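Discussion board: Methods & Data

I've been asked by a reviewer to show the raw model output for two of the constructs in my manuscript, not just the figures. I'm not sure how much to include, so I'm pasting the format here to get opinions. Each protein appears as its amino acid sequence followed by a line of discrete structure tokens. Is this the kind of thing reviewers expect to see in a supplement, or should I convert it first? Here is construct A:
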Amino acid sequence: MPRTCTICTHPSREALDRALVGGASNRSLASLYDVSEAAIRRHASNHLPETLAKAKDAEEVAEADDLLADVRDLQARTLAILEAAEGIRQHRTALSAIREARKNLELLAKLIGRLDDRPVVNVLVSPQWLELRAVIVGALDNHPDAQGAVLKALEGAGNAT
């Protein structure tokens, strides 16, 4: 049964991890926290990358939340300008605010994953694929069973969703 990491269970683990990430030497940390240098080294190589990955993920989520909040704030301000412009019948300003509000909504939709404007390519109708398919099927002319199996597999792949 594997041993439990003494650094992971250490009462000062967070401080140890911060010091390791900060570049402190294994020797100085071992001395400071009364643990072995080998334990520090094992922890740094086996557990610290996992901790850093989780921290990075959390940081990315926080940044995404901040960006989303900023865009929502921008949308609220744009709608306030639209409302004010409509109230005093400034139609040009209102139309500009409508354009900006539409752009904000598009950006929000992209950020929350509701809008994906990447192009979709159907390779099954591309000239290169059709040519390759003809070459494959032609190469199997002398092997009708194999040719039939390949054609059936290709048709099945084209119908898969």
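Construct B, same format:
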Amino acid sequence: MTGERDDSISKLSPLDVAHQRRLEGDAAGALRHALPMLESDMAQVGAAALICRVLIDADRSFVAGEVAKRLVDAFCRRGDLPAAVVAASMAESAGEDAAALHQSIAEVFGADSKRIGDVPPAPPPLPAADAKVLPATLKLEALLDRAETSLEKYLASDDATAKDSPVPRLPLFAKLAPEALAVLLAAFEVIERAEDDTVIDQGEEGREAFVVARGALRVVRDVGQESELLLAALGPGAIFGEMALVSDALRAASVIAVEPVILLAAGRDALESLAAREEVVGAELGAFCQGRMVSNLIRHSAILGSVPPDERRELVQRFQTRTFAPGEKLIERDHDVDGLYLVASGCVEVVGEDEDGDSIRIAALGPGDVVGEISLLLRREATADVVAKHPTVALWLEKDAFREVIREHPALLGELYETATRREEETRSVVAQEALELGDIILL
């Protein structure tokens, strides 16, 4: 291992280092870091889970299967649904009945659970200060034997967290009855990524949504010239990539692991099949994704930013959702515009025409941008095509409703007018530059 890699590892927590070692294929190194944590404090459920995983990897599942079932209960007590699902997956790998475990999780976190309240998940216990890394002289077989002994002690210990502790009301999951939620939980696949691994690449086709079970990730957007914009940081319980469930739009940003992460992944095909069997799951998934899309627009759209915060959601609810395949036109040149479009996901291109009738690409617009405002404000036909470059979801406000909205929100009218003026200037500039470059070519 290089010095640079050692420096990176040194910045991680002891448990993160253990996870990183395991992902690098160093099972002995993982146990040397994790065992002292559990042996010094049987409340270190994260360490117990990692040790359990290493034993299952080594085909030593007898004790590990019982521990995985115990961990499902432990994480439920602490209000950590994603970690409980991961533990259920480990139990299944060890030969246990995952369906029964999923049902027990669903009864804690599903609709009408008496344990749900407005509380955060319990924080993980701090690692014991005196937990030291075991010496490198200890070989794997001896460490595996010690791991089984430590897990037997964990099984014999009492959990200090009460079995009926309140758990948080989680988006989407708390809307589903236990039977439906158990079926949804079974559709998740557990995936792991090491520090600095890319989970989602900007520009790729999205086919999965993810829930963070452990670790941290950063969301970044490539803004050109080898620079990137940090959009968000994600931690346990965060849901990301959900637009892949309702749209074929390409990923708008990259998601990169800051430390070793464990994720629950749900593929679009699997969820569509599930929704076909369980209608309520499909309805709740659709409502959840729609709500997340609207929330993102409310936070990031410059146009909606001109409306008072407490009025934005009601305004967005007047829009209707429309989807467009690549090449499909939202607006057609020389035709009346039927309403205002607010791009929710994907990308559209504004394509004009020069004096010789040749097409000119005027602009590319993405989530939060509006189109159609110029024609609606000036009451004229469109002067350019607006074409979906990728699979695109847009919110559409019919033109009569648009006129009613701008009467109610004068600030919105001002923002749209400024946008329209700027777009007109940009269009003239692009056409003029195109003509100049063409003239240069002719002179040559």
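Answer (T.O., handling editor elsewhere):
This is acceptable in a supplement if you add a one-line summary per construct. For B, something like: Residues 410-443 form the longest helix (34 residues).
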